[in-house]
Amino acid sequence: MLQVSDLLSKNKSWSASFCANKPELAAQLAQTQTPKILWIGCADSRVPESVVCGADPGEIFVTRNIANQFRLDDDNALSVLTFAVQALGIEHVVVVGHTSCGGVNAAIAGASAPPSQEALESSALLRHLVPLTQVAKKVVDTNPGLEGSELAQKVVYESVKLQVENIVSTSIIQDNWKGVTSPLSGQVMNKVQVHGLCYDIAKAQLIDLDLTRSSS
Asked: How many whole angstroms separate alpha carbon 155 and alpha carbon 29?
């Protein structure tokens, strides 16, 4: 089992290799970051974005939470999107769901046995999952024959679709698409595309869900 001491020793080895093999990048990263992608993913330890995409440090701007949710009442999510679009000038937002998601499974269970008001008041996790549970209930109600992994995958798809729609509905994206000058950079920033992906853990593969939205 990985311990904190292991993190330090593994980082020591990695940093020596990274600085030796990519000294120019290491020096550049010490000054700035210029990612073109914002990754909105799940906190699941099996889906580390830089690893599964073979990306270098500085290439992907990231926010992760339980079940890759983008809630319009979440200041953390909104602040990440704001900084990514208006300061960094990212070009792509990717919402990434994944198979075998514990949050999705919990939402499916909650669809048939909703938590009590008392439970919601005492659990930030349950409150966070309310929109996903609503998605799961709709999927269950409209697809009575689905169960198991097929049901879970349908919920993943519908959830990612909802997050894409939530992101597109923000004034952050709408202003970007209208060419409004960024209040953070004082410039008109890159037009952003918003995408929906799913990571298949068993195959270690990213799948495009064909949910891309753009200004055109």
From this structure: 38
